[in-house]
Each structure stands twice: as C-alpha cells, then as structure tokens.
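This section describes the prediction task in plain terms. A model, or a person checking by hand, is given the sequence of a single protein chain and must write out its three-dimensional structure as a string of tokens. No templates, partner chains or ligands are provided. The sample shown here is typical of the held-out split.
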Amino acid sequence: MPNEPNEVVIGSAPLSRADVVAVARAGAGVTVGTVARKNVATARAHVDALADATTPSYGVSTGFGALAVRSIPPERRADLQRSLIRSHAAGAGPAVETEVVRALMLLRLRTLTTGHTGVRTSTVDTLAALINARITPVVPEYGSLGCSGDLAPLSAVALALMGEGEVVTADGAVRPAADALRDAGITPVTLAEKEGLALTNGTDGMLGMLALATRDLAGLLDVADVTAAMSVEAQLGTDRVFADDLQALRPHPGQAVSARRMREALADSEIVASHRGPDCTRVQDAYSLRCAPQVHGAARDTLAHAEAVADRELVSAVDNPVVLADGRVESNGNFHGAPLGYVLDFLAIPVADVASIAERRTDRMLDVARSHGLPAFLADDPGVDSGHMIAQYTQAGIVSELKRLATPSSVDSIPSSAMQEDHVSMGWSAARKLRRGIDGLRTVLAVELLTAARALDLRAPLRPAPVTGAVRDLLRTRVGGPGPDRHLAPEIAAAEELIASGAVQNCVEEA
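The expected answer:
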C-alpha cells in the first residue's frame, strides 16, 4: 500500500489524491504555505475594495441565489454571512463518515488558498486549525444536490467555524462546537463579506469521496485479480488464455495489467501443471474464469478516467463568484458537479460487474457438477455439513444490491431555489452510493477469497502457485482450513479485514 505523508503543505504544489487520503484517513496535519497566504491576502484586498464600492457585487453586498436582487447595507453584512450559514446548514439524516468530512475540509481549504475566493487569512487559519486539532463537524447525509456545490454539508463545516453546531473530537466524542473550539484554543470566526459563499460553494464533498473511492477501488481490483487467479487454479482452469500475445490482440491497458497479474499469480503452480498434458480434454474455461482480465481490465480503464477527472478537479478553483487576478469578481458555473457526478456514477458500474463475475466464480467452486472433483459446497461431509453454501447467498444478495446502486444519480435533477438553480448534478448522491458499492465489492471478494483458499487446500497434495499459496497462507493466520461447519460470518469479516487493511495486496507484492 502507498505511504501517506504525515503533513500536507497547502500551496507549495498541487494537492494529490494521496494527500487527500492522508488527511482524511491517516489524520495527517496541514500547513498553509507562504505562497498560499499571499494569494489569500491579495484576493481579500479586492473583496474589501468591492465591499466599499457603490456598485452591488453578488455575495459581497447582495443576497444569495434567488435573493441576489437585494442590496445589503454595510452594517448588515456580517448578519448576512451568519444567516447564510445557519439557513444553509439544513442537512438531515445520519452523520457522514469522519474521513469524508476531513476530505471535504481539506479540499475547501485548498480552494480558499487559490486566491480566487476572497476569504481572510484568519478564516483560512481557523479551518486549518480544526483539521489539525482533529475536530470534525457533524455533517448530515442529506442536503446536497451537487450544484452550487455541496451546500448543506459545507455549511455544517462553516457553522462549526463560527462556533455553532456539533463536532466530533479526536477521541470520538460528539460535543458542541463552541466547547470543542474553546478547549482546543481556537477562536470562532465572525464571517466577513463573501466568506459565507466561499466556504460553501464548492464540490469538495463529491471530490473527497471520489479521491477516497479511487484509492479503494484500485486496491480492490488488485485483490480481484488474485482471487480470480485462485479460483482459476482451484477449478483446474488454464493460464494459457492470459498469455501476453493473446492479450495484445486487444490492446486495452487495463486488460494487459490484469492478465499479467493473473499470469504471474499462477506461475509455477503444481495444480495448473497437473492438467496441462494431452490427457486433459477441456478445451476452454467458462467466461467467469477466461474473461476475468477483460472485465477487471475494463474496470481499471474506467478507474483511470475517474482518476484523471479527480486530478483536474484538484487543481480547480470552485467557487461563485470568483475573484480574478485583475480584481474582478465574476459569477460562473464552475460549481456544477456534473464532471464529478458522471464519473462517480460510472465507477458504480464496474464495481457491480467485478462483484458479479467474482460471485459466478465462487458459485462454480461450490457446484459439484462444475467444480471438477471438489466436494459439494466444499463441505467436509456434504449433507451433514453445508460448507460455503450460504456464503454464496450473501454474495448474491450483495451483487443484487450493487446492481441497484449502479443506477445513475446524475441523470436525475430536481429544480431548486425558486427555479434559479433549475438543473443540478446529484453528484453527492452518486458519491454516497459509490461508497456503499465499494463496501459491497470488498465483501464479495472476501467470500471468493475464503472459498478459493478452501478449494486450493482440497487440491492437496498438489501445491498452489507461490503467490496464490502465500495469499492462502495469509488467510490461514486468521481463518482455519477445511473441516466441519463452523460459524462462517466471523471468517468472512476476517477475510474482509485482510483486504481492507492492504494485507492481501502486500502479501502479493512480497510473493
């Protein structure tokens, strides 16, 4: 697994997806660099000039959304910003995960330091202080339409900056924001002109979840290649179809990677070698075995496209209005979440399909008519024991759910704000269902890992390949080998944890 930085410096170089993962998951701190601080100060000077001007400027001296036609006098502008945050922090439902909120906070901080938002340096410093103190605002799941940014989620963060609402502290306790900030020595912010918009008008939640999802899915596709190889081996399949010259006839880069990984995982397998001779009458394997590189590879190529979109977003300044280098403050549509919503939905398709083909491979190992000599359901005493029969039910239930989650959110739009915001992306919803989909895929692969490892043990005395054998042996440190039925749910959970922790990937790389 990649090493994460312990600290992320904002403004010294473009933020990477690895930086997002480091702050969101590993608790890395942030520092606002000198160049970033200069950018903030320059943009703020432009906003201050507009605040003193007689010409109305959206978000500086006017109301918001459909209320932009109203000019706000200087003495009411602090009230305007405070009211914006309080009214927009209108989310509902369960709190989203801490890692999502930390990613969102980091990405909003990055945009604030581009010099295109007009916030004050003190506001930037307060947001950075919350991240470093591991104070995470409570953000409800529902409230973003993925246009005008992730308004309600970002408003919940801005509310905490003001010392209002609830937060989760580093020890996991839910506390009033005012108390947590006081104990951490952080002074709440009194928002000035433009700052309410700058804190809320971004696609940071969608982007944060995309960055986390690309990391997770990249790891799961690596695992899928290995569990597929184990299944091929356990079912006496051939590795000849993964040959480089055959794969080169269809030169998709992801397919080449998956085929190579499966080929290397099966190298020097006694089980594969045992049926290579002229006595073997099988001409070709079932699609779920033979076509694994094509399916996994297409998923890899889809992932590569999503990563490219995420990387473009990581160098974008998403706000409305934006402060330009010449001092103009201009409205724009860059807050629309379509670029993110599309790829978040797109990734849900290969997540469902990779899980689907894994479930089919698992089912073949359990069917005595198709498993080429393995006992029914891999049971110790079929009839008395049921083996992995119901583990496949669990896979099937999850795969069915993943198909539902593959239905795109981004094709749906509900007008809002008195028809001013009449087309929205629903990208936040796409991100939320993708996260659930990735969790489901992990469980499906855990069941395939359990089943394939048991099948390999049942092929003894023939030994599996060094790579697949190493993965089997890793699993055996947590889960026992074949035998009478035992409580299977903890074994599925143990296999899932080995995948989630990166232990399976590390084992493959070492082998």
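For orientation: The mean pLDDT is 94.
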